[in-house]
Amino acid sequence: MAIALGKPAVDGLNGLVAALGEWQYDGAPVQLHPGDPGWFWRFGVEQAAAATRTWSRDGEILAVGLLDDPELVRLAIAPQAQRDEELARQMVEDVSAPERGVLIEEKAYVDAPMGALLQELLFTEGWKADELWTPLRLDLAEPVRNPGVRVEVIGPEQANLRAAVQRASFDGSTFTNERWHAMAAGPAYVDARCLVGYDEEDNAVAAVTVWSAGPGKPGLIEPMGVHQEYRGHGYGQAITVAAAAALQQLGSSSAVVCTPSRNVGATATYKSAGFGPLPETRNQYRDA
Fold it and tell me: Entry's Pfam families (predicted)?
């Protein structure tokens, strides 16, 4: 049977999040994680559905794409389908042709798992390598050290605080109380936690959200930020350590985070929290 490109209805998203969780395992190439659509869910369930694409054969979903932006699709491919030639060739066709409804006609990007046949075929079709990203990983088999600051798990009553720290950490952030509640209503947030760290004067100085893919599977840190007024005091390291501890409590086997390789400050922060770098990855792009 041919590979079918699909755009799921709202009621089909829960199953896709579950599939993404099943595809995660230690040692696998870093790819789209349940936490990625989980974080995107802040824009609402209808927008999450509109930004999702699937590729399937005989009703079996083999790949999932999330349009972080109209020009960027981030992908996960089922482990048994990473080298599936029929799937890879159809995906190349679908992301290359704007009329297929995946990527726009202007310059566009694909974030595919390293080692997948799709990457090789995209290069063959003239796609180019984009900037490098560094994934980092912390094994959670051993106890996680104390973060050294007070950390609070955020519930609905403190959503305003979590949103405020996010906006103070990232220029242009549009995260709000309403968007926190939209995110928390999504299926991925059942196995997620938001944390806020405080300094000695009880100022909220850093925040993070962590996403489990299920017991015994890698968990994701996305996003982590330090309030602009409190940087340079080790709070990024502290909240990252707290994030790892939260994932350990959720049953994750490891904690994973990704950052642009050019962001040497973020890479240093994660390393200081005990994370080790994995082989670099890169997106691919086509010109308009």
Answer: Acetyltransf_1
Parent domain of 96: 4-132
Tell me, yes or no, whether 167 and 98 share the same domain. Answer: no
Give the predicted TM-score (pTM) of the model. 0.97
Q: Based on the fold, state whether residues 241 and 262 are members of the same structural domain.
A: yes
What is the residue type of 84?
D
Q: Taken in order 168, 172, 178, 184, is the CA torsion positive or negative?
A: negative
Angle at 270 between CA 32 and CA 206, to 5 degrees: 90
CATH of the domain at 60: 3.40.630.30
Q: Phi and psi at residue 274, in whole multiples of 5°?
A: 100, 0
Mean of the per-residue pLDDT values of the chain:
98
What pLDDT, on a 0 to 100 scale, did the predictor assign at position 1?
Answer: 74
Residues 116, 80 within the same domain:
yes
